[in-house]
């Protein structure tokens, strides 16, 4: 039976939730969703970044998420700027997830404003997935006051890509049979997990669209982008067997973060910090005799805005190098170029090292992983004897 996966994504979450609260406080006031407006930063100091923008701010003035407030004001001097309210956003997020869990407990929340649902087991309760999606959108709009997009497919990555199609308040499908028509014509930078550095490499290989990548030799892509390139090639072909993980145990993991004495503004410095964090996280995993399937990178900017990005590996790991490489890929896809106050790496979906796993048919990393494992073991022995700071990898 073909899986049916829903991806639910709140349309302009911070802006929508802020607008509803402002209208609740002042029903006669303007709806910031209908005027040039953003959430984020500080108008007086012109510091911070854009966390969310109205459709008018985006379409008429070209304002983008994560761009500096000063730059947004140059584009639209009359821009309405509203500070974020993270306590409110957490509350509205809980309301949404509580409603969705009344539909199915097979729900995995991946950020404050998006989640996956495994619809397969309850499909027989609805006339069709499209009608179920329409019910979800209508109920959220009428009961909670904001709108969501719903992407439907047989895999997580395709459902995620589908939900990013035309907005707001839309349902889109992206079944494997629709990939050539709907997915392949899109620019390569619209592929999920294709960050700035990966896109730059792919464009040098004359890969301009997702279809170009899908039709490329996967070994060539892996040669240039290692395991991340293999993952992007699989995503371009709609290959993703990752399950919707709804068990609370999946949220447990090992992590480490550091608040920086001064803001970091370069990728090189950030990746030096990620190297040290990866060493610490991997060391704790080995000490606990655990491996991790999931890796997440967290950034807190100088305006105290927090963002994160996560991915799931094809095989669990406890090696420093694998965690570091994956963290760098996530960082490249996430960082807005704004000054960084805090960096963190978290791992999740823990398993025992001897738990059997099914490797990808194309997984070429096993020999390298064994070398990394032996290196980690040697470093652990040195640190155990001479102290944790006695030896450190070069950047």
From TrEMBL:
Source species, domain of life: Bacteria
Protein location: Cytoplasm
Active site feature: 114
Keywords: Cytoplasm, DNA damage, DNA repair, DNA replication, DNA-binding, DNA-directed DNA polymerase, Magnesium, Metal-binding, Mutator protein, Nucleotidyltransferase, Transferase
GO annotation, cellular component aspect: cytosol
Top enzyme class: transferase
Gene Ontology MF terms: damaged DNA binding; DNA-directed DNA polymerase activity; magnesium ion binding
Family matches, as PROSITE patterns: UMUC
SUPFAM superfamilies referenced in this protein's UniProt entry, alphabetically: DNA/RNA polymerases, Lesion bypass DNA polymerase (Y-family), little finger domain
Binding site for Mg(2+): 9, 113
InterPro entries, per the entry: DNA/RNA_pol_sf (IPR043502), DNA_pol_Y-fam_lit_finger_sf (IPR036775), DNA_pol_Y-fam_little_finger (IPR017961), DNA_polymerase-Y (IPR050116), DNApol_IV (IPR022880), Rev_trsase/Diguanyl_cyclase (IPR043128), UmuC (IPR001126)
Pfam families, per the entry: IMS (PF00817), IMS_C (PF11799)
Residues marked Substrate discrimination (site): 14
Residue ranges occupied by any UmuC domain in the UniProt entry: 5-195
Cofactor annotation remark: Binds 2 magnesium ions per subunit.
Reaction(s) the record says it catalyses: DNA(n) + a 2'-deoxyribonucleoside 5'-triphosphate = DNA(n+1) + diphosphate
This protein's record includes keyword Cell cycle: no
GO BP, one annotated term: DNA repair
Cofactor(s) required for function per UniProt: Mg(2+)
Listed EC numbers: 2.7.7.7
Quaternary structure, from the entry: Monomer.
PANTHER family named in the record: DNA POLYMERASE KAPPA, DNA REPAIR POLYMERASE UMUC / TRANSFERASE FAMILY MEMBER
Family: Belongs to the DNA polymerase type-Y family.
Protein role: Poorly processive, error-prone DNA polymerase involved in untargeted mutagenesis. Copies undamaged DNA at stalled replication forks, which arise in vivo from mismatched or misaligned primer ends. These misaligned primers can be extended by PolIV. Exhibits no 3'-5' exonuclease (proofreading) activity. May be involved in translesional synthesis, in conjunction with the beta clamp from PolIII.
Protein name: DNA polymerase IV
Gene: dinB
């Amino acid at each position: 039976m073909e899986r049916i996966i829903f991806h639910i994504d709140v349309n302009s979450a911070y802006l929508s939730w802020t607008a509803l609260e402002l209208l609740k406080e002042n029903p006669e006031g303007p709806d910031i969703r209908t005027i040039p407006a953003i959430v984020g930063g500080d108008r007086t100091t012109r510091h911070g970044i854009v966390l969310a923008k109205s459709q008018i701010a985006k379409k008429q003035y070209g304002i983008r998420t994560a761009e500096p407030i000063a730059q947004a004001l140059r584009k639209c001097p009359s821009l309405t700027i509203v500070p974020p309210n993270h306590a409110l956003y957490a509350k509205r997020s809980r309301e949404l997830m509580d409603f969705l869990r009344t539909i199915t407990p097979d729900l995995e929340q991946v950020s404050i404003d998006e989640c996956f649902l495994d619809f397969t087991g309850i499909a027989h309760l609805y006339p069709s997935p499209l009608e179920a999606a329409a019910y979800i959108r209508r109920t959220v709009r009428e009961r909670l006051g904001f709108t969501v997009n719903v992407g439907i497919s047989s895999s997580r990555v395709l459902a995620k890509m589908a939900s990013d199609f035309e907005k707001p308040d839309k349902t889109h499908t992206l079944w494997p049979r629709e990939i050539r028509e709907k997915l392949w014509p899109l620019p390569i930078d619209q592929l999920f997990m294709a960050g700035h550095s990966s896109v730059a490499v792919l464009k040098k290989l004359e890969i301009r669209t997702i279809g170009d990548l899908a039709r490329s030799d996967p070994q060539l892509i892996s040669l240039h982008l290692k395991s991340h390139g293999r993952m992007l090639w699989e995503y371009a072909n709609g290959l993703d067997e990752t399950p919707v993980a709804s068990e609370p145990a999946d949220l447990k993991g090992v992590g480490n973060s550091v608040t920086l004495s001064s803001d970091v503004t370069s990728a090189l410095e950030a990746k030096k910090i990620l190297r040290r964090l990866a060493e610490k996280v991997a060391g704790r995993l080995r000490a606990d005799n655990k491996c991790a399937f999931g890796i997440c990178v967290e950034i807190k900017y100088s305006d105290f805005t927090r963002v994160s990005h996560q991915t799931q590996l094809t095989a669990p790991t406890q090696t420093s190098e694998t965690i570091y490489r994956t963290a760098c890929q996530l960082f490249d896809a996430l960082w807005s170029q704004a000054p960084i106050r805090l960096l963190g790496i978290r791992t999740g979906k823990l398993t025992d090292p001897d738990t059997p796993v099914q490797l990808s048919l194309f997984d070429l990393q096993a020999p390298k992983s064994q070398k990394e494992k032996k290196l980690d073991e040697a470093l652990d022995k040195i640190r155990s004897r001479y102290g944790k700071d006695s030896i450190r990898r070069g950047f």
